[in-house]
Amino acid sequence: MSASRIERALGETAEAVTDCLDRLLPAPDGPEGRVAEAMRYAALSDGKRLRPFLLVTSTGLFGVSGEPALRAAAAVEMIHAYSLVHDDLPAMDDDDLRRGRPACHIQFDEATAILAGDALLTFAFEVLTDEATHGDGAVRCALARGLAVASGASGMVGGQMVDLLAAEHDLDLDGVTHLQNLKTGALIAFSCEGGAILGGASAEQRDALSAYGRDLGLAFQIADDLLDVESTAAQLGKAVGKDADAGKATFVSLLGVAGARDYASELVARAISRLELFDGRADLLADVARFVIDRRH
Ligand code: GRG
């Protein structure tokens, strides 16, 4: 599949998931309406919707599509949007620009941004545990548990903690890999495994998708590090070069540009090899893995 076809597939899912988010997110109403406004500002802004694409495409492998897949994908994107809102706060990365426009705390204010992040986090679980996502309570419970583990102290939040301390710790390759597996990788891996849960996959299929997601998550982060040194803020719609300025180790600082690129390609090849048991039916996941390291934003 050519780059433009995978871009088109990503675009179609992005549109459907954004439409689902728009339908699900509360409309601003009453004295508390400002938090709904900030939630919508953060979640409906232009993102690649990579995690929703992974979830919808993985679910599709098992013949499940439509509203259940879109709702689960929207829940994952809510968690991602919350993490970006909180990451941009002055107490964390202190960034003014996100997705090419003012960060949530600049557009609103810090307290509103904290509340909007909190509300996106909790609303994700409200959506996931609703019967409209899946009729079987055990499936809803497995989805909620998986997303909680990926987002919490042993996943994304834990990774953010390591990241905040990284400037003082001189991390080596194992240290940076651990940080990024938690901070970025866990949610990407869940996006793939969540599709297996929602689709009723076998344990073997679920493990394969989870392993694919872990390799892809790391490759995605290496590509992000490469974009960070090779692009401008205007191209990415967010600040660049902050890790280097803060003296934090990255895959690029540890391996060099060529070494990081080679490592990302190796991870993508390994990710794709995890899909062999789907006999060619997971071609779209193979294509998106290649796209992740070739992307320009
Ligand atoms: C505050 C709990 C908490 C966590 C923050 C994910 C994260 C942890 C911070 C984001 C900071 C960052 C730039 C991480 C690098 C990789 C990454 C997650 C980039 C943003 O994801 P994309 O490229 O963004 O998928 P879009 O805007 O396309 O959705």
Q: How would you characterize this protein structure?
A:
The chain is an all-alpha fold and 297 residues long. It has a single domain, classed as Farnesyl Diphosphate Synthase (Orthogonal Bundle), CATH 1.10.600. It has 14 helices and two strands. It has a two-stranded antiparallel ribbon with strand order 1-2. A hairpin with a 2-residue loop joins strand 1 and strand 2. It is globular and about 50 Å long. The relative contact order is 0.13. The model has no long low-confidence stretch (mean pLDDT 94). The site of geranylgeranyl diphosphate has 17 residues, from helix 4, helix 8, helix 9 and helix 10. Geranylgeranyl diphosphate binds next to helix 4, helix 8, helix 9 and helix 10.
The rounded Rg comes to 18 Å
CATH class descriptor name: Mainly Alpha
Q: Provide the CATH superfamily.
A: Farnesyl Diphosphate Synthase
**Main β-sheet description:** 2 strands, antiparallel
What string, H for helix and E for strand, traces the elements in order?
HHHHEEHHHHHHHHHH
Bound compounds, each kind once, are: geranylgeranyl diphosphate
**How many domains would you count in the coordinates?**
1
Runs with pLDDT <50, length 5+? none
Task: Give average pLDDT, whole number.
Answer: 94
Question: N-to-C terminal Cα separation, in Å?
Answer: 20 Å
Which architecture name does CATH use?
Answer: Orthogonal Bundle
Strand content: under 5%
CATH fold topology:
Farnesyl Diphosphate Synthase
Apparent shape: globular
Structural class assignment: mainly alpha
Count of separate DSSP helical elements: 14
Number of strands: 2
Task: Please give the order of strands in the largest beta sheet.
Answer: 1-2
